[in-house]
From TrEMBL, chain A:
Protein known as: Coiled-coil domain-containing protein 47
Record-level GO BP terms: endoplasmic reticulum calcium ion homeostasis
Pfam families: CCDC47
Lineage: Eukaryota, Viridiplantae, Streptophyta, Embryophyta, Tracheophyta
Keyword Signal: yes
Gene Ontology CC annotations of this record: endoplasmic reticulum; membrane
InterPro entries per record: CCDC47 (IPR012879)
Signal peptide: 1-21
Principal cellular location given in the protein's record: membrane
Compositional bias per record (Basic and acidic residues), positions renumbered to this chain: 449-458
Native source species: Thlaspi arvense (Field penny-cress)
Membrane topology: Single-pass membrane protein
UniProtKB/TrEMBL annotation, chain B:
Biased composition annotated in UniProt, kind: Polar residues: 1-15
Major localization listed first in the record, in broad terms: membrane
Family assignment from sequence similarity: Belongs to the Asterix family.
Organism: Thlaspi arvense (Field penny-cress)
One record GO biological process: protein insertion into ER membrane
Protein's name according to its UniProt entry: Protein Asterix
Region annotated Disordered, chain positions: 1-27
């Protein structure tokens, strides 16, 4: 601590000395009177100098110093303890009075200054010294290990390989699905007139949005505008996601959205999913929350298997939608054993939150590329339900029940729209006002400029006639 | 279900070519896009690797950059963040390995 403090002071003093040395030399060139002034200045601001200053000050005239020596000592006393270590000629005697000694003093001071320099350098580089010492020691003992670098480079290479492998695998799954369900003589080909995204005949069937998201569009059928199938596969191309999926299991999913025509769909709100998922759906999805509730199995008829939950507006609608064929093929007890792992949810609604109101939503989990046949029956549900919902008309009693709820919803939606419109209008008005104000400000600035130019022109004109007067002379 | 296969050629053909609507991709607002967590982590790791001079941070930043590149969907918007993260990570590596403060640890 004291060393560093002393070093700091030495550095400060060093800078000071250089300034003072210059002033001293100036004093020499001038007359003696100036010298005395300079020397007095020097004494007042005198730091305990090192050799350089003592050497330069040797040729100083004696007289002034002998007078002010007494002044010196009390000045130096209040200075910190460490400085007293450094002896200076000014403290004790005048060099010229004592001959023969300066050499010893000089050598003593020479010795001292290297010590001081050493202290200084030590305080500057203790860290580097210790590091140098630390590293030199283990250097002899250990070899530098490159484990981190090797590990990371390996991981990067693994990432790269996995990227291409995973990408290829995802594409294989998507193409297998398309081959089974969207190519020639398949279910979608027979149900929809236009498949794929593009315009002409040879357009690709699937749209690749991302390395693990594929979309399939089909249109041209009665009762609906079109169907959009979105395949969200596992992120096989991303090694870190893959590792994460080992901890948190994930599945390949396919979601079908069918956009129903306005006139084709009556008031139906129905959802079906596995029990837990059904509960969360009922709480989270807006229209289910609003219009429907979990329906218990009615007595006296076949119903879906135990593991599925049904959410519906009314039991009657639920009963009409869940027909016997459906129960036999997919949702009944026997059939569900096969499809239990692939069926995720089904949601039929005419109050769907979002842009398009009347929609059918189906969510299944995809099997691998080789087992695409597992979901044939599930996919076949889709055109069946399109026709069923398209033709279905509610009975008058059920209609009355549903009517009031929907009217309220419609009114609220309308109010919201109006609010939004009003806010937009207000914003526009405020913006217009701002624009007008800015324009006015600009105009007023221009007016001021014009006035100024006019004034200058007037002044010039006033100046002009004088010249004319002179000329007429 | 299975009977729909047989309906293709009969009068019950469900297809209506006249009703075909071309596909319009739904516009996704840029705020709704899924957050690029790996890019974000890459930037943080890269900055910390440069500031605190941890080699591991810079290497992990490069790994996360690579993951973010792999998951990149939008060419324009994501590329800026990824390139920023890459620059930080590479800067971190350069200062760590070729920096002046550690002559003993030169690679």
């Amino acid at each position: 601590m004291s060393r560093s403090f002393s070093f700091a002071i030495i550095v400060y003093l060093f800078f000071y000395q250089h300034l003072l040395a210059a002033s001293q030399f100036e004093g020499f060139d001038a007359e003696d009177d100036d010298v005395s002034e300079d020397s007095s200045d020097l004494h007042h601001s005198l730091p305990p100098p090192t050799i350089t200053q003592s050497h330069s000050s040797l040729p100083d005239p004696e007289t002034s110093y002998s007078d002010s020596n007494s002044d010196l000592i009390p000045e130096l006393d209040p200075e910190p303890h460490s400085k007293s270590k450094i002896a200076t000629p000014f403290d004790f005697w005048d060099e010229d009075e004592f001959e023969g000694l300066p050499v010893e003093i000089a050598t003593a001071q020479m010795l001292e200054s290297p010590l001081i320099a050493e202290n200084a350098t030590e305080t500057v580089d203790p860290d580097i010294a210790s590091i140098a010492q630390d590293t030199t020691v283990p250097r002899r003992k250990k070899k530098k290990s490159y484990i981190v670098e090797i590990g990371c480079v390996f991981f990067l290479i693994a990432l790269g390989i996995n990227y291409f492998v995973g990408k290829h695998e995802n594409e294989r799954v998507a193409l297998a699905w398309a081959a089974k369900f969207a190519s020639k003589d398949t279910i979608f080909q027979e149900n929809f007139s236009l498949l794929g995204v593009g315009e002409g005949e040879d357009t690709p069937l699937l749209l690749k949005e991302a390395l693990n998201v594929f979309k399939f569009y089909a249109t041209g059928r009665r009762y609906c505008h079109g169907l959009l199938a979105t395949m969200e596969l596992k992120s096989r191309h991303d090694l870190i996601s893959r590792l994460f999926n080992l901890l948190v299991p994930c599945e390949d999913e396919i979601t079908f959205e069918v956009y129903m025509n306005e006139e084709s769909m009556d008031h139906v709100v129905l959802a079906m999913a596995r029990k837990k998922a059904a509960k969360t759906m009922q709480k989270e999805v807006k229209d289910l929350q609003r219009f429907a509730g979990i329906v218990s199995p009615p007595a006296g008829r076949k119903w879906v298997s135990e593991e599925l939950g049904v959410i519906s507006e009314s039991k009657e609608v639920a009963g009409d939608m869940i027909t016997d064929t459906v129960l036999d093929q997919v949702f009944g007890d026997k059939a569900m054993e096969k499809y239990r792992k692939n069926f995720m949810s089904m949601h039929i609604s005419d109050q769907h939150p979002g842009k398009h109101k009347k929609m059918l939503l189906f969510k299944f989990s995809l099997p691998d590329a080789k087992h695409m046949d597992d979901i044939v029956r599930l996919v076949a549900l889709i055109p069946y339900y399109i026709d069923l919902v398209g033709r279905y008309r509610l009975s008058s009693q059920a209609r009355n029940k549903t009517e009031s709820g929907r009217q309220k919803a419609a009114e609220e939606a309308y109010k919201e729209l109006q609010n939004v419109r009003q806010e937009a209008l207000q914003k526009k008005k405020a913006e217009r006002k701002k624009m007008m104000e800015e324009a006015e400000a600009k105009l007023s600035a221009e007016v001021i400029r014009k006035k100024e130019t006019k004034e200058r022109a007037r002044q010039v004109k006033k100046a002009m006639p004088k010249v004319k007067m002179n000329r007429s002379h | 279900m299975s009977h729909s296969h047989g309906n293709a050629s009969s009068a019950n053909d469900p297809r209506q070519p006249s009703a075909a609507k071309p596909y319009t991709p739904r516009p996704v607002a840029p705020e709704d896009l899924p957050v690029d967590y790996s890019g974000f982590i890459a930037v943080i790791l890269g900055v910390s690797g440069v500031m605190f001079r941890y080699k591991i941070c810079s290497w992990l930043a490069i790994i996360f950059c690579a993951q973010s590149l792999a998951n990149m969907r939008n060419m324009e918007s994501d590329l800026k963040q990824i390139s920023m993260a890459m620059m930080f990570a590479i800067m971190g590596l350069v200062t760590n390995y070729l920096g002046p403060n550690r002559p003993a640890a030169k690679k």
